[in-house]
Amino acid sequence: MTILKVTNLSKEYDGVSAVKNISFEFTSGKCISLIGPNGAGKTTILRTLAGLLKPSSGKVTFTEMKQQADIRLLIGYLPQHPVFYSWMTGKEFLVYSAQLAFLTKEEANKRAEYLLERVGIAEAKNKRIGKYSGGMKQRLGIAQAIIHKPKLLMLDEPVSSLDPIGRREVLILMEELKKEMTILFSTHILSDADEVSDELLLLRDGEIVEAGTMDKLRRKYQTAKIELVFQ
Ligand code: ATP
Known about the structure:
231 residues, alpha/beta, six-stranded mixed beta sheet, 9 strands, binds adenosine-5'-triphosphate, ATP binding, ATP-binding, transport
């Protein structure tokens, strides 16, 4: 089932064309990677889908929008540089975030406990976030992004800054989460995209240059060549 349809989307910043007339559709329960080098337009697309930027032209349609009045309830978004309150513990941060999502104190507490387990940081729940590793922070960020049980989870370069262990843990978590929700994953590393995504959208200079499964893209290009372009 199509969950999201993007039609002829363009975004300009003061005359700079960041996204140029792109169209695509997402089927529910899949992980789709937006892959492209720095400046390709990945963040702009995610921020536009999240409703944080107004498109210059084009349309974004969520098929469940009729039942759900507020688009923010359908989407979970982890930005490329998430902001955490480093003096809070992981649990305090999630309880606070859940209350911002209108859960009662009791519900917020339950949801926080569940998500701390779900993303694998329950043992560190009473530790201050300032003491968390990069991978733990990203997992906490993912927990915050899904606190309101969204249908679509958008992750902007969630593993790019992590060491190999942190990267592995986050990719495994994404693999598990995609059983429950659609994931849009932005990255510039093809091997990461290959590991978790069902389909890829290759972006360059604000345009989709290729779309399809990894197998389809492999048949068309030599993987090594694409990696050289994006690394
Ligand atoms: P990165 O991986 O470096 O974040 P990206 O693929 O996410 O890159 P965007 O950040 O969406 O790409 O940027 C796309 C283009 O838009 C770039 O040329 C960038 O310089 C430009 N751009 C992004 N944000 C702004 C802004 N606020 N004002 C002006 N130009 C911008």
